[in-house]
Design goal:
With 158 residues, this protein is an alpha+beta fold. The chain has six helices and seven strands, in the order αβααββαββαββα.
Length: 158
């Protein structure tokens, strides 16, 4: 879990300078229930995130996840709630799960396909044009998460 050390360090730093709240951890059983609701298997890095942290709330924003180990929770900020909202209102195709959503502005997603299990690129879904941008925003979910938390530290220090 060496790769996750920067995430732990950034979260610990954010705990001292901001109102960060974690929603987890989520159990393997809960994660499997969420995968069934989403209709596919989440990438390994997303599963690790859910198992360690569940969800991240920060400055009225969140990284979509699982709150309080509850697979039935479908409110905003949960991976199931955000994915279902983007599917219903913005035509997000089946086979993708939302990892960050700003109501009506944009959503960032990961693929639920077998090919994405290891690499887990984060894709930018344009809710207005109802299509994915041509290139992934991040090569992996972990790189996205580290970038998100690093930016949060920089914003909260200024």
């Amino acid at each position: 879990m060496k790769a996750w050390k920067p995430v732990d360090e950034l979260i610990n730093e954010l705990k001292t300078i901001s109102d960060i709240e974690l929603g987890g951890p989520a159990s393997p059983e809960t994660i499997m229930q969420v995968e069934r609701k989403l209709g596919g298997k989440l990438p390994v890095e997303v599963v690790t995130f859910l198992g360690k942290y569940g969800q991240v709330f920060l400055n009225d924003e969140s990284i979509s996840g699982i709150y309080d180990n509850d697979a039935e929770e479908e409110s905003n900020g949960t991976i199931v709630g955000d994915t279902e909202e983007c599917r219903k209102f913005f035509g997000l195709p089946i086979g993708f799960a939302v990892v960050e959503y700003h109501s009506g502005d944009y959503c960032l997603c990961v693929s639920l396909t077998e090919e994405a299990q290891v690499s887990s690129p984060v894709l930018d879904y344009n809710v207005f044009q109802r299509k994915f941008e041509e290139h992934p925003l991040y090569d992996s979910f972990l790189k996205y998460l580290i970038s998100y938390l690093t930016q949060a530290v920089e914003i909260n220090i200024d």
